[in-house]
Design goal:
By secondary structure, this protein is an alpha/beta fold. The protein contains eleven helices and nine strands.
Length: 295
């Protein structure tokens, strides 16, 4: 991230994303790891500007002996930022990942209701989104799975789940903690290759040096699938731009970023010329595609 204070870029990205909205009461799910610690810190940093009321919840799954270390981090973060904290111990007999996840979300929902919060915020980040989409693909999913995690969705009547970090890499969140001198714990279960998500994470870590834009590309694909699934206006605009470009054989392979720039201009009702490749440009007038210009 650029600038003398790159940590402020993270705060600005969350503030401008629209995933967290002005005046909300938010329960922050803090596991004690670097991502959730960064989430608590970032939301605290933007709380005054967005008029947020913040609470923290730490869920102890009762699986790891080292969970007390995670709890200590959550306690310190809550005390440092002056936020009320719920420590919740799960009583789950079966230890499967899905059962623990279901129990964790049920506990977070109960805590949110106690604090009269309308939002539960979690620290899922860009790599989590990539892993989620790939796991869905390997299971043989359809469009519902390929859209990945949504930035915001309904958990229960009057209660939403918000994921303001979906577009931010985990490395950036860890750097944010270092810059702010914030403590965090490392989950040893992340090294367990018997867990499918960890195995996928390990494989992806070998691919990223070869494909540096891997996570951004998966996030874009997930966003396109999500838009198509609910037939948003943006999805219709993307199709119309692609159809116009396909008229000229030289423009059929234009990359996503070029198309998205035109789509955003169409959404604004703009007018202008957008260069697709040397000698070829797309012309829009007052929010409509006007044609292709050869220069």
């Amino acid at each position: 991230m650029r600038g003398a204070h790159p940590e402020r870029d993270v705060e600005r990205a969350v503030e401008e994303s629209g995933v967290v909205r002005r005046g909300e009461r938010i329960l922050i799910a803090c596991s004690g790891g670097p991502d959730s610690v960064a989430l608590a810190a970032v939301l605290r940093a933007v709380a005054q500007r967005l008029e947020l009321t913040l609470h923290v919840a730490f869920v102890n799954h009762g699986v790891r002996a080292s969970a007390w270390q995670d709890e200590c981090v959550a306690l310190q973060i809550a005390a440092q930022f002056g936020m009320p904290l719920d420590v919740i111990a799960l009583a789950v007999q079966a230890r499967g990942e899905q059962r623990l996840r279901t129990a964790r979300y049920a506990a977070l929902m109960d805590a949110a209701k106690r604090w009269e919060c309308g939002v539960v915020a979690t620290a899922h980040h860009a790599e989590d989104q990539t892993e989620t989409v790939l796991l869905a693909l390997l299971r043989g999913t359809g469009p519902a799975g390929l859209r990945g995690m949504r930035g915001r969705r309904r958990l229960a009547p009057g209660l939403d789940l918000a994921r303001p970090f979906l577009g931010i890499p985990s490395e950036t969140l860890r750097a944010y903690c270092h810059t702010r001198a914030l403590p965090y714990a490392v989950d040893p279960s992340n090294a367990d290759m018997n867990l499918r998500r960890n195995a996928v994470r390990e494989a992806l870590s070998a691919l990223r040096p070869l494909f540096p834009a891997l996570d951004a590309a998966v996030a874009r694909a997930a966003a396109v699938v999500a838009d198509e699934r609910v037939a948003t206006r943006r999805a219709a605009l993307r199709r119309s731009v692609r159809e116009q470009l396909c008229i000229d054989a030289e423009l059929r392979d234009i990359d996503f970023l070029h198309v998205e720039e035109v789509v955003r201009a169409l959404e604004r009702g703009g007018t202008g010329t957008f260069h697709m490749k040397p000698g070829l440009a797309l012309r829009i007038e007052r929010g409509s595609v006007a044609g292709i210009n050869r220069e």
